[in-house]
Amino acid sequence: MTENNAIIKLRNIDVDFGSHSHEQTVRAVNQVDLTVQQGNIYGIIGYSGAGKSTLVRVINLLQTPTHGTVHVNGQDLLQLSVAELRQARKKIGMIFQHFNLMEARTVFSNVAFPLLGSKFTAKQRKQKVTHLLELVGLSDKATSYPSQLSGGQKQRVAIARALANDPQILISDEATSALDPETTTEILNLLKYLNKKLQITIVVITHEMDAIKQICQNVAVMDQGRIIERGSLLQIFGHPQTKIAQQFVNSATQLSSALQEIKQSNLATEVYQLNYVGQVTNDPIVIELYKKFNLQANILFSNIEQLQATTVGIMLVEFAGSKEDIVAALAYLDQLGISVQKIDLTQIEVH
Amino acid sequence: MQKIINSWFPNVVVNWSGDNGFVGAIYQTLYMTFVSALFAGILGLILGIILVVIADDGILPHPRFYYCLDKIVNLVRSIPFVILLAVIGPFTKLIVGQTIGPTGALVPLIVGTAPFFARQVQLALLEVDPGVLEAAQAMGMTSWQIIYHVYLKEGLPELVRSGTLTLISLIGLTAMAGAVGGGGLGNMAIAVGYQRFQNDVTFVAMILILVLVFIVQGLGDWLIRRLKH
Ligand SMILES: Nc1ncnc2c1ncn2[C@@H]1O[C@H](COP(=O)(O)OP(=O)(O)OP(=O)(O)O)[C@@H](O)[C@H]1O
Ligand SMILES: [Mg+2]
Q: Where does the ABC transporter domain lie (chain A) (predicted)?
């Protein structure tokens, strides 16, 4: 894909929040570039307060950046008039953690709401809403009120509403954070389905690697207003570079709890972490090492995931063998594209 | 029955019919309440909406205008009503041509109630979920659409509650206005009942005012129940 397919292009974005009385300002977003390709599902992950919401609110200019440029759908949003910006916003749908539905309106009326002021006849409007409700699997709830729905159903209504003006982009700000794991998966699957069916570009914000893992093709990791790491899902998941990215991956793979257990129970002293992506060898790595270097690898933990039809594995092993053999084996693993990292168990915090 | 009423409420019976009797007083109280409610309602609603919209976190922030309007509303609201009645006499005369009688009471009632209602409207509208407002802005709604279709629609139950509260406090004010020359049940209670030592008149005037309050409260509660989902 080339730069020309970019549907969202943010450059050098800073967002400062200042209090009027004090001279203090908070830089919520710091020097961020973000490019999202047409049709992509792009994940932005970070801890609370990292600046994720502030950053995505720049995409539809709900938040005006202090510096930087914002190009969306081929338009320079900062150059638009108020009326033009409103039109541009209609093509950027948004869903939220707390659904933000209108309690005084039925499901139907909520979904029809963005069509206010559009040129549709009552009949066309009805067709449109009926179709949208079908798309999200809620045809039977048209006359219900939001208070009568479950969290997952409410988010489906919100998704239908966000799609009412046929947007090219859908922004999801922690849309699954208030839902249980099963409902989360349902909603994520719905987003994936909509991405396929409507070719809609989706930007997903979350603090859960699990959500990213399930649907995103690309990931950016945010911390203190900056994007500190970005890449394809496989890159981030297979070879996270920064400490924060590693923490997120570890929480998704249960690696952190495994490390804590190893430390607590003194299972091993010299632990190596192996990360690999794709079919690296025909034989399992452990057998390979034994055959080639006469090295016994004791597997303390292993997690293998299928992400986008590719194997992504993490292993914690302890080697039994001579120092030279271990060094040679590590070099060999590196050749295979397996990243190896010696774990400093003293750095592991036990909770 | 007739006998009991005659013996327990002799003065009420004497003072029942006619423009200067209870019938006229009830009419005057209703007139003062509803005409001033109409004007104070419209004025207060507009002021309340403006206050919410131009607040710092509103959809069209305007800090300086907000500061002024906020102070004015507070100031007018702080004037005790009895004093307000006297102070704005000349202004009243200018607008409705008289300072006494139910019509003369309208101007002070409206001026006294509008800022109170404006605050109530402001509080009611601030209850509207900011998330819903954000969603509406993200959809590219105009400010008018947001005011009408989000603030007023979503805030309606709270607005009805505020309206009920305001109407009840307004009934109280009409009694006070009545006592100083506005007519109505307040006048009945004070000028006839209290000053001529006809306690039964005072008592019945009070009961009638309470009935009016209960009716308003009941209607308000019923409406809120209907509006909530
Ligand atoms: N309107 C605002 N005024 C002042 N500071 C703000 C405002 N909005 C956000 N901030 C600050 O900017 C920083 C980033 O906030 P933001 O909401 O973007 O984080 P986030 O990554 O979305 O976090 P969360 O996961 O909790 O939603 C925080 O320090 C926050 O306090
Ligand atoms: Mg957020």
A: 10-249
- DSSP SS3 for A186: helix
Could you tell me where the DSSP H helices lie in chain B?
2-8, 10-14, 22-54, 63-78, 81-87, 89-96, 101-126, 130-138, 143-145, 153-154, 156-177, 184-187, 199-227
Beta bridge partners of A17: A26
Select the highest-mean-pLDDT range: A66-80, A325-339, B184-198: A66-80
Structure tokens at B81: 């009503």
Task: Burial-class residue A295 by CB neighbours within 10 Å (0-12, 13-18, 19+).
Answer: buried
- Token output for B109: 């009632």
Pick from B137, B142, B154: CB nearest A62: B137
Domains of chain B: 17-228 (1.10.3720.10)
Position A1 scores a pLDDT of 47
Neighbours of B41 (CB within 10 A): 20
A72-82: average pLDDT: 96
A103 to chain B: which residues are within 8 Å by CB? 154, 229
The answer to whether the CB atoms of B134 and A100 lie below 8 A apart is yes
Task: Provide the 3-class DSSP secondary structure of residue B17.
Answer: coil
- For B20-76, write each residue's pLDDT tens digit: 888 888 999 999 999 999 999 999 999 999 999 999 999 999 999 999 999 999 999
Q: Give which of A286, A276, A290 is closest to A325, Cα–Cα.
A: A290
For tokens 């400010």, name the residue: B143
Closest partner CB to A114 (pick from B139, B153, B156) = B139
Token reading at A249: 């991956």
**In Å, how far is A116's CA from the nearest CA of chain B?**
8
At A315, which helix (H) or strand (E)?
strand A310-320
pLDDT tens, position by position, B95-153:
888 888 888 899 999 999 999 999 999 999 999 999 999 999 999 999 999 999 999 99
Backbone angles phi, psi at B39, to 5 degrees: -70, -45
DSSP readout, B50-75? HHHHHSTTSSS--HHHHHHHHHHHHH
